[in-house]
Amino acid sequence: MERIRTGIPGMDEILNGGIPKRNVVLLSGGPGTGKSIFSYQYLWHGLTSGEPGVFVALEEHPVQVRINMAQFGWDVRRYEREGTFAIVDAFTSGIGEAAKRERYVVVDPEDVGNLVDVLKEAIRDVGAVRVVVDSVSTLYLAKPALARRTVMLLKRVLSGLGTTSILVSQVSVTERGFGGPGVEHAADGIIRLDLDEVDGELIRSLLVWKMRGTRHSMKRHLFEITDKGIRVYPDKVVKLGRSFSIQTL
What we know:
By secondary structure, this protein is α/β, with parallel strands linked by helices. It is 27% helix and 31% strand. The protein has helices spanning 11-14, 35-48, 62-70, 77-82, 112-126, 147-160, 183-186, and strands at 3-4, 19-20, 24-29, 53-57, 85-89, 104-105, 130-134, 164-170, 189-198, 201-211, 221-226, 229-239, 245-248.
């Protein structure tokens, strides 16, 4: 099976080598869990490996996305100039001087059809292998009943164009779901990131809930965010609950 390596230290080990090609993965978690960093790192590894990418910015200004990535040493401007990376601006609606310099702008971010048209253009222009949509929840927050339909539409487009994609999904701090009714059935894979307070300390952990087409770890693994990005520890399993523990395999 052809796989797309995430490039995140330790992650590909628990995915048995990487994400199966053309899979659409829901990256779910609460605020501060590292979803955007995970996504940036996934795209950056692709760029440095010769795999073009597209980032869809629904919750942040494209300028801020570039700044956030550069903080980890991931300066994507060179790849934009070379035509192997693109940011789809689905945040500003084209308002503002900086927005006017963006090439791919979604005039009405609430119009999923408009978003899909601009996304298709960007994917074809750069020959994208990897795509991230951050966050897909924004498209159906006001109408949660549309969650599954929206994810299915994006899945058909993204898989049909041959990309392996991550859809970032927001959940509340206390919610253990995946960010919308039915989305867990629409996605090919689900990776859940969590941030839990244990004895006055915040512990980061992740769980691969499902991944079509491959075996994967069924355990909850410890991970951390460093100045170089995310590092997953495939040999460290987190046990939550009354008897919290971190076990080394």
